[in-house]
Fold this sequence. Notes:
The protein is built from nine helices and nine strands. The protein is of the alpha/beta class. Helix 6 runs antiparallel to helix 8 (252-269).
Amino acid sequence: xxxxxxxxxxxxxxxxxxxxxxxxxxxxxxxxxxxxxxxxxxxxxxxxxxxxxxxxxxxxxxxxxxxxxxxxxxxxxxxxxxxxxxxxxxxxxxxxxxxxxxxxxxxxxxxxxxxxxxxxxxxxxxxxxxxxxxxxxxxxxxxxxxxxxxxxxxxxxxxxxxxxxxxxxxxxxxxxxxxxxxxxxxxxxxxxxxxxxxxxxxxxxxxxxxxxxxxxxxxxxxxxxxxxxxxxxxxxxxxxxxxxxxxxxxxxxxxxxxxxxxxxxxxxxxxxxxxxxxxxxxxxxxxxxxxxxxxxxxxxxxxx
Length: 304
Ligand SMILES: Nc1nc2c(ncn2[C@@H]2O[C@H](COP(=O)(O)OP(=O)(O)OP(=O)(O)O)[C@@H](O)[C@H]2O)c(=O)[nH]1
């Protein structure tokens, strides 16, 4: 175990820059929820990469952005609390667009923490979607937001540049023993991941018809055997009209959501899943602290 390294990496970035995709790619497994819509990742998640020479624990923060309601505040607080605790920070940005207001907010956030902040690696993602000759100018635009950051151009989707990032992360970790059993890939309970996967499937299939006012509660999670699990879950929507959309004609939409989610959960858990979904209306759950707690959002306090 000599020279074994172990430590924590915080992934930060505005919504939809590809944090979940990067983490899944680095871990080689689907752990975090990935979707083409922003704000899918609502919980603080750990992904654990265990190798013979190291254990890297990733904190996948929800996007830092302007809070518009209580859930937004929660996401910001969670993200901020994971910044200082890390051995190194990977700040992911989207090279397909110039820096946005939210990228600047993150830069300010990092700046505010000052010298307590661990080193920041600026991972310029989605280089596959940019003409090669435009890359250095685009990287420079992002680097101007944090001149001391080391820049790593990459594509989380096709893996280009990811090894170099991983090597740099490894060099920043202290020598030490692993924190977790090497077989463990996440500290999230399977049922929490299942809830995320159901929500992700719903958002993907519903497109823009029901905005982010959808939450998932796992009502039952019963292991019938080593190979079989029964999951009963409720999808909460904010409006009566949304309920009809989520259920669809002859329950067709709900069936599609159920099938897609079941396949994802089976891929994650490696066993057969029986999934039963219900839909209920819970108005304004996003502004209701009790409802947020019920749906598993732990409100953490940010220490100034
Ligand atoms: N072209 C391209 N698209 C990518 C790449 N990485 C991620 N994407 C896409 O970008 C979208 C967002 O990816 P996610 O991984 O869900 O982003 P996220 O940052 O985790 O988003 P939140 O959970 O909202 O914080 C998805 O449609 C991905 O397929 C990349 O390297 N290249």
